Amino acid sequence: MKKLFYLFMVISLISCNKGSNKEDETQKDSVITTDLNNINVSILIDLSDRIDPITNPNPTMQYFQRDVEYIKAIEKGFLNHIKSKKIITYDDQMQVFFNPEPSDPKINDFTKELKVSFDKNTQKSYFALVDKKYSELPLNIYQSAIKDGNYVGSDIWEFFKNKVKDYCIKDDKRNILFILTDGYMYHENTKFAEGNKTSYLTGKLIKANNLTTSDFKNTIEKNTYGFVKANDNLSNLEVIVLGINPEKGNPFEEAVIKEYWENWFKEMKIKKYEIKSADLPSNLEPIILKTISGKY
Predict the structure, then answer these.
(1) Helices (DSSP H) in the chain: which residue ranges?
(2) Those residues with Cβ within 8 angstroms of residue 105's Cβ, 6 or more apart along the chain or in another chain
(3) CATH placement of domain 37-293
(4) 109 in helix, strand or coil?
(5) Where are the domains of the chain?
(6) Rounded to whole angstroms, how far apart are CA atoms 220 and 125?
(7) Farthest CA pair distance, the chain
(8) CA nearest to 93, candidates 165, 180, 170, 33
């Protein structure tokens, strides 16, 4: 009887060990499926008159040229990230958006060319092709928009309301959205208010709301000024705004713009975000590269 008892105990221990191994395997599988080392990078470009070198000139470096260099830095960070991984793990993509789409069909063709993706079957030569596309096409887009001169504005609010989840968020990836804009938000098709919150922000609105003193934060909080919330939960999206460029005359304009954006992102449960001024690309490139690498 004792021998049978000991034999039963040995069998039970072996079975338990097998069970625990299965649990370990299950845990390993779950880690693999939730690995967010694959990235999905989106670039939303504001093609309003902010890029017009006549309306908004900058002798140091025109704003459209800064945008082009920002995009180049984003592409550099994207490729650096992919090169840091094993080929078998490639599952990354990058694309450019406008909202609304430009009327010029050439710009839309350029946009299609800028949608790139990498997987385990991607040839090594594709890196050079992507680099070539992002070295040439963004400048072509801005030159075409400036030549056309029909600046319809950028409906950023509507993009966040109706498109950002479908266009910029993949469940199995780390999602990063770069927005190239001066920080003002306005489009004639999406201009409305809910109480003291609005779907737009202009220099005139900032003045009308008396946000021209150092006490602007208290004024915003007291009167609940801000953007109307466009989405409920964007916690799996990281957002980097590049190019904030306040109008002259109000020393607090830039801070007010950033406050609007920050409060908006928090309301939509965006946990990781950065809002940067229209600085020289050489100053912003390290920030862009660090953001894409995940080393904030």
Answers:
(1) 2-33, 63-83, 105-113, 125-148, 156-162, 164-168, 203-208, 216-223, 253-267, 281-293
(2) none
(3) 3.40.50
(4) helix
(5) 1-34, 37-293
(6) 52
(7) 98
(8) 170
Residue 122, C-beta contacts closer than 8 angstroms, at least 6 positions apart: 87, 90
Is 203 exposed, middle or buried, given 0-12, 13-18 or 19+ CB atoms closer than 10 A? middle
Which residues share a beta bridge with 177? 42, 239
Distance CA 58, CA 50 (A): 11
* Per-position b or e across 213-238, b if 16+ CB within 10 A of its CB: eeebeeebeeeebbbbbbbeebebbb
Which pLDDT does position 260 carry in this prediction?
Answer: 98
Q: What is the pLDDT of residues 104-153, one digit of tens each?
A: 888 889 999 999 999 999 999 999 999 999 999 999 999 999 998 888 77
**SS3 call for 177:** strand
Average pLDDT estimate for 277-288: 97
CA distance 145 to 92: 29
Rounded Cα–Cα distance for residues 244 and 277 (Å): 4
d(CA 40, CA 92): 6
CB 220 within 8 A of CB 191: no
Residues 6+ positions from 44 with CB-CB distance below 8 Å: 97, 98, 99, 154, 156, 159, 177, 178, 179, 180, 181
